[in-house]
Amino acid sequence: MNERTLKVYNSLGDDSSQPLIRLQGKWLQNAGFEPGDLIKLQIRNNEILIKNMHIDIDASDRSE
């Protein structure tokens, strides 16, 4: 499992402070994410799991 350390920023453009996490880079592509992919987030205490939905769609297409 690869790990990355990122910073949580304040969002811009509104009066209240909202957390913002930016994900970008070739490492996303290497992990199987492409521009336009749909993702699903599973949120738990102190944890966010990001799942690429195109993998599920491709797998279900093959089973039909």
UniProtKB/TrEMBL annotation:
Gene Ontology cellular component list: cytoplasm
Q: Can you provide one Gene Ontology molecular function annotated for this UniProt record?
A: hydrolase activity, acting on ester bonds
Q: Name one Pfam family in it.
A: SymE_toxin
Q: Where is the Toxin SymE-like domain?
A: 4-51
Name the Gene Ontology biological process terms: RNA metabolic process
Entry protein name:
Toxin SymE-like domain-containing protein
Organism field: candidate division WOR-3 bacterium RBG_13_43_14
Q: What is the lineage of its organism?
A: Bacteria, Bacteria division WOR-3
